[in-house]
Design brief:
Helices cover 28% and strands 17% of the residues. It contains ten helices and ten strands. Helix 7 packs across helix 10. The protein is elongated and about 65 Å long.
Length: 303
């Protein structure tokens, strides 16, 4: 598969996602400002002739002010080790390279890969024509900073894949469907709290930064998007030796949301276990904090 540089490349396994970031900034939903950019001296981002492909979830950012706000929010340092997932037509790639000495990008669309090769020098941009779901991010090094617009259809698998490399990552910033971000940062006993919340919160500290309206992209997605920051915990809440057990427990607990723990975790916990753990068996999974799920895994593994 084509690569942009002769330098040593990470192990690649095949093709990725997305076009360019569905992004924005601000505490509230951002309204696309294309119609006023001329008045404030900004030119709308020109979309090169490229037919967006649904299978890659391509929605191209066209609001230059939002791009500026995003870059400001990322605080990139010139010597930072950055990788962008799905650079698309370069809406974030270009401004990032104005600050960074070098940038790595992972892109699945071969047509876009060719465009990137033509536009950028291999001295500043290393392009991996690869599938982010199978990409070995650890091969890029440590203190890695990750940014990207993740397609709705595979956003959760990518997040779980990147979790495997948390030890190599400094921070991650992603544009996702707003509902997905709501689930990621949800607290116990709320409708959005579920398996995704627990599995990610045990490894990352997360914060929703802003919401962006569909009109800021071409083609416009049918739902709002949200930008989230993920910072790996210095000490994950669950030990690596217990990760599989923890994941199995969480999956079983949320497999039937309306069922009580007594029913969903019957294969794991006996009545006396609930007494030791001081957990009410009549509760549902959504009522348990991440720490409680960790306690169950610790108890079953003998600490």
């Amino acid at each position: 598969m084509p690569l942009s540089s002769a330098r040593s490349q990470p192990r690649l396994l095949s093709g990725i996602r997305d076009g360019v970031s569905r992004t924005g900034i601000g505490a509230k939903s951002q309204t696309c400002r294309i119609t006023v950019t001329a008045a404030i001296g900004l030119r709308p981002i020109q979309i090169m002739r490229h037919t967006p492909r649904k299978r890659f979830g391509q929605n191209f950012l066209v609001d230059p002010q939002i791009v500026t706000d995003i870059i400001r929010g990322l605080h990139p340092g010139k010597d930072d080790l950055w990788v962008e997932i799905g650079p698309g037509l370069g809406a974030l790639t270009r401004p990032l390279l104005k600050t960074l000495n070098h940038l790595h990008v992972v892109e699945i669309d071969r047509d876009i890969v060719e465009r990137l090769h033509r536009e950028f020098s291999e001295n500043s941009l290393t392009i991996y024509s690869a599938d982010a779901l199978e990409f070995d991010f650890s091969a890029l090094g440590r203190n890695l900073r990750v940014v990207g617009n993740l397609p709705y259809n595979i956003s959760t698998p990518i997040l779980f894949h990147l979790s495997k490399f948390a030890g190599n990552i400094s921070d991650m910033h992603f544009m996702l469907q707003k509902e997905v971000v709501a689930r990621m940062v949800a607290q116990p006993s709320t409708p959005d709290y579920g398996r995704l919340s627990v599995m990610l919160q045990c490894r990352f500290e997360m914060e929703q930064l802003f919401i962006v309206s569909p009109e800021c992209f071409r083609p416009a997605p049918k739902v709002e998007s949200a930008f989230v920051r993920m910072i790996p915990r210095k000490q994950p809440l669950i030990d690596t030796t217990k990760e599989k057990l923890f994941a199995d427990i969480v999956s079983a607990a949320f497999s039937q949301r309306r069922k009580t723990l007594r029913n969903t975790l019957h294969a794991y916990l006996k009545p006396e276990d609930y007494m030791v753990l001081d957990i009410d068996a009549s509760q549902r999974a959504e009522n348990l904090s991440v720490a409680r799920f960790v306690a169950i895994a610790d108890h079953l593994s003998g600490f």
